[in-house]
Amino acid sequence: TWKWVVGPMFLYLCERLVRFWRSQQKVVITKVVIHPFKTIELQMMKKGFKMEVGQYIFVKCPAVSKLEWHPFTLTSAPEEDYFSIHVRIVGDWTEGLFNACGCDKQEFQEAWKLPKIAVDGPFGTASEDVFSYETVMLVGAGIGVTPFASVLKSVWYKYCHDATNLKLKKIYFYWLCRDTHAFEWFADLLQSLEAQMQERNNADFLSYNIYLTGWDESQATHFVVHHEEEKDVITGLKQKTLYGRPNWENEFKTIAGKHPGSRIGVFLCGPEGLADTLSKQSISNSEADPRGVHFIFNKENF
């Protein structure tokens, strides 16, 4: 038995030593942004830190707990001079981090009063392959939209810098939310991208659909009366918010019809049930002919 135990134990000890070494490296919190509905954004800097889109890190705050490490997806782009995470306050540890950063106080918080943070990572995910395709479908459910914040920011930086060498030509973005609580911080990013794409006369580069899945018919009816207004009354975007769940079969067939003979990357950050649905649709809508359309499914589950 010991022959089978020694190898994994050695690898585990190496991993713990690497994490301890990384936790001793200095991390500076440069900015704390408070978003609506108790969501905070931590912008940080660390010497030698390099990331790719959609990656995640483990974070420890000794002021809250000396032992707990928590995973968070990076919401910044590799082109930015800092890295950031968005933290939704939903438990004891996140509440402790919220208070340690002085977010519960009205007055301005001095930088030296901010807590020490230890960071381990970054670690890779399937989202890193998004630039390997000419056409992609990005599907985020709830807070699972965070890796796509990094993707969309990076796409925009690359597009502005050298659009001709960017392989990615079309993005179909789907965001499924039970309620409007997560809209505020991410809608700002979409509004910015929407305005900048229109300025460059390339509004078709990004197609997005936002679905409110937790609203009943009476709640939706209240906003339908404003459907003819130029911007959506919930998100402030030109694309109107939809209610219910997407008809994935229709969505896949429509996209396949628009991009015949291409490989389309499907990227999901969401629950296992949605992953099963998208995986089946990717298989059923891919053609047997190698020259036909093929959907390549990639997922992250939470």
From TrEMBL:
Highest taxon above the source species: Eukaryota
Places the protein is found: Cell membrane
Principal subcellular localisation of the protein: membrane
Ranges where the FAD-binding FR-type domain occurs: 19-129
Keyword Repeat assigned: no
Membrane topology field: Multi-pass membrane protein
Cofactor dependence: FAD
Keywords assigned by UniProt, alphabetized: Cell membrane, Electron transport, FAD, Flavoprotein, Glycoprotein, Heme, Ion channel, Ion transport, Iron, Isopeptide bond, Membrane, Metal-binding, NADP, Oxidoreductase, Phosphoprotein, Transmembrane, Transmembrane helix, Transport, Ubl conjugation, Voltage-gated channel
Any one Gene Ontology molecular-function term assigned to this protein's record: superoxide-generating NAD(P)H oxidase activity
Coiled coil: none
InterPro entries, sorted: Cyt_b245_heavy_chain, FAD-bd_8, FAD-bd_FR_type, Fe_red_NAD-bd_6, FNR_nucleotide-bd, RBOH/FRE, Riboflavin_synthase-like_b-brl
Catalytic reaction(s) noted: NADPH + 2 O2 = 2 superoxide + NADP(+) + H(+)
GO BP terms: defense response; monoatomic ion transmembrane transport; superoxide anion generation
Any GO CC annotation of this UniProt entry: NADPH oxidase complex
Function, as annotated: Catalytic subunit of the phagocyte NADPH oxidase complex that mediates the transfer of electrons from cytosolic NADPH to O2 to produce the superoxide anion (O2(-)). In the activated complex, electrons are first transferred from NADPH to flavin adenine dinucleotide (FAD) and subsequently transferred via two heme molecules to molecular oxygen, producing superoxide through an outer-sphere reaction.
Protein name, UniProt field: NADPH oxidase 2
Gene that specifies this protein: Cybb
